[in-house]
Amino acid sequence: HELKTPLQSIMGSAELLENRLVKEEDRDSFYKKIHESSAQLLTLIDDIIRLSHLDENQRFEEIKLNLKSPVTEALEALQSSADRHGIKLETNLSDTMILANFRLVYEIAYNLIDNSIRYNKEKGKTKITVKEHRGQAILQVADTGIGIPQEAQNRIFERFYRVDKSHSRKTGGTGLGLSIVKHAVQQCHGTIRLESELGKGSTFTVIFPTLPAGADDNSK
Ligand code: ADP
Asked: 219 pLDDT band (50/70/90 cuts)?
């Protein structure tokens, strides 16, 4: 269904154009529709491929890395989107060594920060924290956004589940971001927790296993 909807929209518009059933002045909006639906389809296919890689339970190479690095990379990739949406990204990033796959941690940080921008309120903010606390490596993404109703808080990690379908589609979501996060966290042997209050905001906390004792020599 998720793949068919944009494809049907492309087919429908192309067919009308081909049969010259669209008035001259309406053509541009049809071309735009085809362009947008193709882009949506491509994003969806990319997400499905990413998710299927995670599902195959393949082993991802783990290296000793500073949790700050993939998080900083994700922040850089999303800064312009935050600016466009008028969302302030506040950071508090401490050096925190973990044993994990760089790409997976990047995916986790990217998807959580991306959501915190897309589901925020006007002039809202997101606070991104990386810290070590009681021997645990923690990544926290806390937004001042729309919040998630209690009954949906477990379901948002399911594939294609969205609290508000129209809002999510408008903001360019595929409904797969948090499934990717959930699987990536599992692959990293970590855990994820969500606290959210409707209308106030959401805080996602990911805990990564710390480095085995002795593994953090020459860590920088
Ligand atoms: P989508 O592509 O729809 O954003 P996700 O899997 O990333 O898909 O998220 C699933 C749903 O969870 C979203 O559609 C939205 O309803 C809700 N959601 C995710 N992150 C947040 C957030 N930070 N604040 C409020 N709602 C959120």
From this structure: very low
pLDDT at 220: 42
Total-model pTM: 0.91
What is the Cα–Cα distance from 64 to 67, expressed in whole angstroms? Answer: 9
Tell me how far the alpha carbon of residue 16 lies from the centroid of ligand 1, in angstroms: 34
Token pair, residue 206, equals: 């990911």
The string of pLDDT tens digits covering residues 85-95 is 999 999 999 99
- Distance, CA 33 to ligand 1 centroid (Å)? 24
Give me ligand 1 centre to Cα 29, in Å.
28
- The closest residue, in CA terms, to atom 12 on ligand 1 is 156
Contacts of residues 1-10 at CB distance under 8 Å and 24 or more positions apart, as own/partner, are: 2/44, 2/160, 2/174, 2/175, 3/41, 3/44, 3/45, 6/37, 6/38, 6/40, 6/41, 6/44, 7/37, 7/41, 9/33, 9/34, 9/37, 10/34, 10/37, 10/38, 10/41
Nearest 5°: phi and psi at 46? -60, -45
What is the whole-number distance in angstroms between the Cα of residue 162 and the centre of ligand 1?
6
Q: Is 168 in the pocket of ligand 1 (CB under 6 A)?
A: yes
Q: What whole-number distance in Å separates Cα of residue 201 and Cα of residue 218?
A: 39
